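Example: Oleosin.
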Amino acid sequence: MADRTSPSHIQQRLYGSTIAPPHGNNINHPIASFLRQLQSQSPEHSRQRFGLLAFFISCGILLLLTGITLTAFVLGFIAFLPIIIISSPIWIPLFLLVTGFLSVAGFLFSTAAVMSWMYRYFKGMHPVGSEQVDYARSRI
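Written out as structure tokens, the predicted fold is:
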């Protein structure tokens, strides 16, 4: 029977097999001590540590992608700035035209929706929200 503190038993316990830890039989290696510490804790602590580790890795990756995106945006803006300035006599009226069209379309749509609701309400078709209006009318 092997001693519980023998390197082979520790290898078995740490790695689930007899594969040697990194750097030979060095059981004082930082990875081996980290794994020993993880296994000595309760499963809840291990899950929390793993979740925290996953959180930090995910945040680091997202921070890196944010930095790359921001850098690409700034460099693209710098590269296309002369084209934007030269073509600005076209973009400003186009922007105003599109903004005006979308505003008018939004106002017309909301007016049509309100008129449709009022028509259904006064015809007794009970549109959505008519109960609240009836309750408010009864309170007045």
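The first helix runs from residue 7 to 15.
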